[in-house]
Amino acid sequence: MRVILAEDSTLLREGLVRLLAEEGHEVLAAVGDAEQLLEAVEAHTPDVVVADVRMPPTHTDEGLRAALEIRRRRPGVGVLVLSQYVEKRYATELLTSDAGGPGTGGVGYLLKDRVVQIDEFLDALDRVGRGRTAFDPDVVRQLLTRGSRTDPLSRLTARERDVLEEMAQGHANGAIALRLSVSRSAVEKHINAIFDKLGLTGGGTTGYSRRVLAVLRYLGG
Questions:
Q1: Rounded to 10 degrees, what is the CA torsion of 77, 82, 85, 87?
Q2: pTM of the prediction?
Q3: pLDDT tens, 156-203?
Q4: CA distance 14 to 54
Q5: Per the UniProt record, which residue ranges are transmembrane (predicted)?
Q6: What distance in Å separates the CA atoms of residue 114 and residue 191, rounded to the nearest whole number?
Q7: Whole-angstrom distance, CA of residue 205 vs CA of residue 70
């Protein structure tokens, strides 16, 4: 894949450049702030952007804002953001930006601790590069902590919530079956039940959009 990196930590940035090169990816640019990131994307049009949420000058949400701007300007570019902490609002904003349907680049939100687990980072990058989602399991778990008294997700069984959690991370049905040690047909039945309980079985929604809408509902979007 053709990748642009945006990370203000020189050590992490250079480490990622070397890792991606070793894996056969082409690093088009490696920059240290959001302004340089936007300029690099306009100049090179990558397959995927990997960007820190917090970058100079204020170290608040410059990276996220740049990522959302890239989604607006170039919806075919995948975006994988890295964060030191779980920030629910940012995760929801990113997934909401993925509601464009087929042809829209993938999107992901990964904690930096996950980056040192190289296989998981590369798997997330691959999923985003193929137009899918890749959300950190810890992010997804924390998004489940809201109260259930008025939560439509309270209608789901424990297994259905497990399946939806895996969907929110960006796993396809076959991968979910392997991860939960169940058959693929069982996963498909659970997903159909999730769509039904969340009121997503009516006309006008494709299988792709129902999946995105279910995860959006899961994230509280």
A1: -10
A2: 0.69
A3: 888 888 898 888 888 889 999 999 999 999 999 988 888 888 777 655
A4: 17
A5: none
A6: 27
A7: 26
